[in-house]
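To fix ideas, we quote verbatim one protein's residues and fold tokens.
>
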Amino acid sequence: MQQNINTPQKVLQQYWGYNQFRPLQTEIIQSVMDGKDTLALLPTGGGKSLCFQVPTMLKPGFCLVISPLIALMKDQVENLEKRNIKAKAIYGGLNYREINLILNNACLDEDLKFLYVSPERLNTSLFLEKLPYLPINLLAIDEAHCISQWGHDFRPEYRQIAALRKHIPEVNIIALTATATKQVVADIEEQLALKNSAVFAKSFERKNLQYIVRQTENKAEKLLSVLTNSHGSGLVYVRNRKQTEEIAKFLNKNNIKADFYHAGINGELRSQKQNNWIQNKTRIMVCTNAFGMGIDKPDCRVVIHFEMPDCLEAYYQEAGRAGRDEKPAFCVLLHDASDDINAKKKIGVNYPDINEISLTYQAICDYLQVQVNAKPDRSFDFDIIAFVKRYNFDAFKTYSCLKILEQSDLILLSEAFYEPSKIKIICNHEALYKFQVENDKFDAFTKLLLRSYGGLFDNYVRINELEIANRISMPVVSVYKYLNRLSELQIIDYLKTKEIAQLTFTTERQDIKYLTLNKKHLAERKKTYIEKMQAMMAYANPSDTCRSRQLLAYFNDYSANDCGYCDVCIDKKKVKEKTELTNIIKTEIIEIVKKNPISSVELFEQVSTTDMQIFTIVLRLLLDNNILRYDSAYQLHCN
């Protein structure tokens, strides 16, 4: 049972070990406690999760959290359980039995405080059937910008949330995001039908972050220079999986301890790489944008983007993983002319024509052998790489077609994820005992399972086939055979490990002649994409406006002053200092020459600068403007 703690402050101290809240957290939590619908805009690292986690702990029932990323949900659940707070997650890839068991337990378990659900699960018949019996005390929408078609990561399944509210009208809502323009904020409020709402927006300014753009023709050399001249752990974001490995190898060759990370790495290795970076065993993680979400590492000192992202929302979110401990950190974007050329090329890749989208849909249906008018809500393992190879498609354009089909509410494509093998005993104690007596060859194996894993009669429990093989001294292949046979005999339900994307048809399978693609909507999305790309390009190119102010202005925050330490501000300081020095040298030269004619060599020895270049420039300026002149002996005089 949860301890009887009756104030937000006590909850914060008891479970999270903090003595005080960050700015705006107290006000947001109070708004939630007052039963108001609440929209919270907090920058990356601003402590959004606590805004719904703390008030949930103060009320009976649990918080239903809608989150778009499987990895993020898993990290949140693990972090809560480490604090002895009970949490569960439902996402694509779990089977009917697992979901049914979690929902049944959620109806009855008074200790459950958080249930994380991916948005595509909200409209399933199973979820809606259980919904009236779930003791939900708060509805939390994480990454709320996903509900807006004007956001940088639009997810059409988020539009189902407003319909969900009709089933639980008494439950208030909190929507949270770190990246939202004024247009997106308005869309969030409208789409979620927020009522009696309060909006809290902390400035997007991160005063401890030094934003720097470096124009370079040799990015690898500049990357090495930045990392050599900085300290502490860091992230290097690149565009594709191949680059993660190549650049990590390059850094290691140059004595910078680095590793690589992308979505194609299996789950156990992925976790190991994450932990090595979090524990500073690896200094630099070279990664795609699959890395970082939900990973709690406050002391990341530098984030470098090797290429320009598609939009400022993505850049701000990824760069914002630096300096979460509020100590100084660097956010560096490496840029060259090819970045702008490639960005423009991507318009055609990201927004293929209608015919290409239709052909991709047809190919998917053929590949998965789905007939016209087949019923919706069927899920399939979908190996995108094998699919692309089968039809000789362009990988990047195909992925864009898939996203558009998803945004058109025709399919749902979950991220690839790693799910360890799980088992649950599905017969009762008496039936199991009888089975063991009658099947001696399974007796030792089933006893080992019971000794090694608790709760097998009540829940699906994660197992490791290799560990089982080592404990019972048999080949791992034999372990798989035993588990499969026990599953066939209805003694256990065995869910074998998988790491592959799931594709779900959300509507009846359509004939491509009548495919429901909204051309006007696609044109609007393309226009928005181009505008976002242009804003990103403007930021990446030379400018006379403070980098921090450029970012803040994009998010409609015009209140900040120049930061004083981005590359633009530093260059301005240098120009100012040079101008001031030039004026000082100019005055000194005139005063010295007024006293007596003097040679330029003697003059340089008497002025206060040792910079021959500045001295020469000032002297040339004075001569050109006839303030000084040389005589025939090359002595300087005042005119």
User: Anything to note?
Assistant: The CA atoms of residues 361 and 512 lie 8 Å apart. The first helix runs from residue 8 to 16. The chain is about 45% helix and 15% strand.
